[in-house]
Amino acid sequence: xxxxxxxxxxxxxxxxxxxxxxxxxxxxxxxxxxxxxxLAAAQAAAAAIERAGGSAMAVQxxxxxxxxxxxxxxxxxxxxxxxxxxxxxxxxxxxNPIEALSLENWRKMLAIHxxxxxxxxxxxxxxxxxxxRGGAVIYMGSVHSHEASPLKAPYxxxxxxxxxxxxxxxxxxxxxxxxxxxxxxGFVRTPLVEKQIPEQARExxxxxxxxxxxxxxxxxxDGEFTTTADVAETAVFLAAFPSNALTGQSVVVSHGWYMQ
Length: 260
Ligand code: NAD
What we know:
alpha/beta; 15% strand; 8 helices; single chain; Rossmann fold
């Protein structure tokens, strides 16, 4: 067990990548807080982890809501103790060319990905630094933290921004034993991706099969999707890593779509 007695908050953990990470952390012995928009969905995810023999709780948290974030961290601290692992994973996608993009959607995207990462990071380190225990923060970036694609201006901008936040936290957190890293997955077949296949097909005027083969997987080494399990294994590795040697980095998990 690589995460015994650790307390992990995973945002957006009721679905997709976050859900798989929550299960993987629980299997490694961590107590896991599922933080998501819908309390019912978070509770269902936590119940599934408990049924599998793990330890989990659910909190309702919109990561852009400062009060909700603070309340959620208070709840998990009261139930499990001060969290020492944060996976800032909650995210959405919005497909639009820049000329058609509304300011409202631009702001919404930046808020969920960047305000959410900031608010949850601050909530954790304020509680964790005084304990002197150290810990790990993992941001869910993307290949789009390094590469651009058309139709995804706010997503690409926000995912690049996470690299900056991560590097600052790596520098500030070092003396507290807090490490910060970004995981950068390629395309993973979660609800977030299933939704954008028809949207991209419409915007680009091509078939859905071509969106998969000629847009999403075109530059991978083997034409394969990355899986939630691939990302979860990376998230365990980064959370369990024992020293500040591995901090301020981005780890790209993308079947070679992007090579650093
Ligand atoms: P998903 O849609 O399956 O899950 C996202 C979860 O985030 C949902 O449970 C949703 O309710 C939650 N969420 C959305 N807005 C929230 C908010 N304001 N507060 C709290 N929770 C919120 O998506 P996924 O594919 O698992 O994506 C998870 C993360 O991984 C995102 O940050 C995404 O950008 C990133 N990512 C995904 C892929 C991919 O191909 N699927 C690739 C690279 C990066």
